[in-house]
TrEMBL record:
Organism expressing this protein natively: Hexamita inflata
Gene3D superfamilies: Ribonuclease Inhibitor
Stored InterPro entries: Leu-rich_rpt (IPR001611), Leu-rich_rpt_4 (IPR025875), LRR_dom_sf (IPR032675), SDS22/Internalin_LRR (IPR050836)
Keyword flag Ribosomal protein: no
Protein name as catalogued: Leucine-rich repeat domain-containing protein
Lineage, opening ranks: Eukaryota, Metamonada, Diplomonadida, Hexamitidae, Hexamitinae
Keywords annotated in UniProt: Leucine-rich repeat, Repeat
Length: 380
């Protein structure tokens, strides 16, 4: 057999074009990296870098030379986690239009991760990030959170504005202090019964009817479950540490259980079916000023209101409307309103709109009207 010298094979014109494109792209990327390095090298402080929000960056390889611990790069476009250094402790990439988490599983040193307001559906790769303590996933397209089951070190978790139906993967996350799952599709709170260290819990706009499970979460200080389907709130009497409570837009009628909450300072109860405010009858309750967001008079038909309390009513445009104990009676104002409940409530709403922008003794006027209504109902 005759061997002849081998010559370098010829590259087809199409392949030559592709090779040239790759080389050009690499050179462009290197040039961009040098520009970013020069721009940001003096902005790194103690291993922390914040990139301008209006910066158009799709590749973060250039930050490797900075030996960062924390990187804040909100509003970056189409960032690939394969271009992000693996040695970061904190990564903020919210509003960054990230569609997938490919490559994030190698970032095992992360303790804080913010990828809220992106377009993420699949979070399965997060199961590798066992050191995470803070995780914010708000406003994505997430339905399944089973990947979070192994993230036992989490203390702060934000799942707001997704499509989650079950919290079962969180049932053993006993280190959680703050949990948010606003506007999802949660019906059952039972999986969080073991989260006894929780101090803040927010689950507005879900499908919850029963809050009995909350009797186990006795360390809660701030609680909000507006716009659910809750009727019975008697369980709340066990939350002795609670200071802020909001359950607007439910079906609550009785609120006597709140009488035992001596640390409660802020209460928001509009759009319910409450007929009495017994909590203000006890002078020992709410030694501090209690701030109310207001009462909807179409849905909360208050029949009587005690005259002994100092109540602040936060009305439209944050106007503060005060009522003080032992105020003087006004016969002129009494005669101003008719006694039929429907018309009565309409008059109140008119008065609220007129007084919303000024500091007045609004509760004084409201009390007089309620007293007048109550007296006429008794006579009937």
């Amino acid at each position: 057999m005759l061997l002849v010298g081998l010559s370098k094979p010829k590259i087809p014109p199409k392949c030559q074009s592709m090779e040239s494109t790759i080389q050009d792209s690499t050179m462009v990327q290197c040039a961009q990296d040098q520009i970013f390095v020069q721009k940001y090298k003096n902005q790194v402080i103690s291993g922390v870098l914040e990139i301008d929000q209006d910066e158009f960056i799709t590749n973060l390889q250039f930050v490797e030379s900075f030996k960062l611990k924390e990187l804040n790069c909100n509003n970056c476009n189409n960032i690939s986690f394969q271009t992000v250094p693996n040695n970061l402790n904190q990564l903020i990439l919210s509003f960054s239009y990230i569609k997938n988490l490919t490559g994030i599983k190698y970032m095992t040193q992360l303790t804080t991760l913010d990828i809220a307001f992106c377009k993420i559906c699949d979070i399965s790769d997060l199961s590798y990030l066992r050191n995470l303590t803070k995780l914010w996933l708000a406003d994505n397209y997430i339905e399944d959170i089973s990947a979070l089951k192994e993230l036992k070190l989490l203390t702060d978790l934000n799942l707001n504005y997704n499509k989650i139906k079950s919290l079962k993967p969180l049932e053993n996350h006993t280190k959680l202090l703050q949990l948010q799952f606003i506007q999802n599709q949660i019906e059952d709170l039972y999986p969080i019964r073991n989260l006894t260290l929780l101090t803040e819990l927010y689950f507005q706009r879900n499908l919850v009817k029963d809050i009995t499970t909350l009797k186990y979460t006795t360390n809660i200080e701030q609680l909000a479950f507006d716009d659910n389907q809750v009727v019975d709130i008697s369980t709340l009497s066990s939350l002795k540490l609670i200071s802020a409570l909001s359950f607007c837009g439910n079906k609550v009628v009785q609120i006597e259980s709140l009488n035992k909450l001596n640390k409660l300072n802020d209460l928001y109860i509009i759009y319910n079916f409450i007929i009495d405010l017994p909590l203000f009858k006890n002078k020992n309750v709410f030694q501090k000023q209690c701030q109310l967001e207001g009462i909807d008079y179409d849905h909360a038909v208050i029949q009587k209101l005690p005259t002994s309390a100092l109540i602040l009513f936060a009305m439209k445009q944050k106007a503060i409307l005060q009522y003080k104990e032992q105020v003087q009676k006004s016969s002129r104002l009494k005669q101003q309103f008719v006694t039929k409940p429907v018309i009565f409530r309409s008059k109140i709403k008119d008065l609220v709109n007129k007084m919303a922008n000024s500091q007045v003794q609004f509760m004084y006027h409201i009390t007089l009207m309620f007293q007048k209504l109550s007296q006429n109902q008794e006579q009937e």
